[in-house]
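Researcher: Structure for this, please.
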Amino acid sequence: MPLAYSWSLFLLFIPTGATFGQEITGTIVGTATDETGAALPGVTVVARNSQTNLTREVITAQDGGYTLSHLPVGTYDVTFTLQGFKTHSATGVELHVNDRITVNGALAVGAVTEVVTVVGTASLVQA
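Model: Predicted structure, token format:
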């Protein structure tokens, strides 16, 4: 066997860097908007893996955009919440290896509620 041939055969079995850096995760991205399509900053976006209950949370930026990266593959429920708006949910989002899935949230204006809690004791005043 010639030396050049055996050397090239040897090189075939050396692993390359690509085999070490394979991703086993995916990414969910999107934008939160109101009913008119205007961007909503400050929306809390939570992705919950329905099989493992792993949750990841992020707040939307000024342009309403968000990124949840390096999520393990699986099925996710994505929830968008912001005070003064109704919660928006997307369920059954399938995330596969190297996926980059877009999940947008359109939030409708919700009812404003106010809760007053009084703690303490009251004394009766007699005249």
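Researcher: Any notable elements?
Model: The beta strands are 25-33, 44-49, 55-59, 65-72, 74-81, 88-95, 100-102, 105-106. The helical segments are 3-12, 17-20.
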